[in-house]
Amino acid sequence: MSTTEPHVEVTAERESPLHPGVKLERRLPPFYASFFYAFPAAVSWIWLYFQRPGLSTALWMPSTWLRDLGLGVAAGLFIVGVTMACSRKFAWTRRMEAEFGWILGAQKGWEIAWVALLSGCAE
Q1: Which residues fall within 8 angstroms of residue 95, CB to CB, at 6 or more apart?
Q2: For residues 76 and 69, what is the distance between their CA atoms, to the nearest angstrom?
Q3: Cross-strand pairs, 23
Q4: What pLDDT sits at residue 2?
Q5: pLDDT of residue 59 exceeding 90
Q6: Neighbours of 96 (CB within 10 A)
Q7: How many CB atoms lie within 10 A of CB 112?
Q8: Predicted pLDDT of residue 111
Q9: pLDDT for 77-89, tens place per residue?
Q10: CB neighbourhood size of 14 (10 A)
């Protein structure tokens, strides 16, 4: 009689960390993220262009773009820092982090950066 464990095949489905028994493998491909964020941005820009043609150009390249970029990066880094601190201190943030990780699936580093950049630009 063998004492080894029977071979169990690992499937792509994972169980939700917050909802036991719910299995789902989701992954947000960069193409869909690009389309999801680009479409509303394009519709908004077209609508703005036909409402006030000069304003759409001013919004894309304001004279204070360098300052605005610096403020945006600083605010983003601040939010990341607060999130990391909360993740170490509070169990609810760790659960939320686990649930988002389950929903998004395994992402590559550049995909995470791309989705974050698109999200920030679209909002």
Answers
A1: 17, 18
A2: 10
A3: 15
A4: 46
A5: no
A6: 16
A7: 13
A8: 82
A9: 999 899 999 989 9
A10: 16
Please give the Cα distance from 110 to 42 (Å, whole number).
23
Residue 122, Cα to own-chain centre: how many angstroms?
12
Q: 37: which strand partners?
A: none
The reported pTM is: 0.54
Which band of pLDDT confidence, cut at 50, 70 and 90, is reported for residue 27? low
Strand partners, 15: 23
Asked whether the beta carbons of 33 and 118 are under 8 A apart, the reply is: yes
Give backbone dihedrals phi and psi of 11, rounded to 5 degrees, phi first: -100, 170
- Reference 13, options 23, 28, 4, 27; nearest CA is 23
Structure tokens at 26: 């989701």
Let me know the angle formed at the C-alpha of 32 by 82 and 34, rounded to the nearest 5 degrees: 65
What's the one-letter identity of residue 54? G
Q: Helix, strand, coil shares of the chain as percentages rounded to 5?
A: 65, 0, 30
83's tokens? 């999130």
Tens of pLDDT, residue by residue over 106-122, are: 777 788 788 877 777 77
Which pair of tokens denotes residue 82? 């607060």
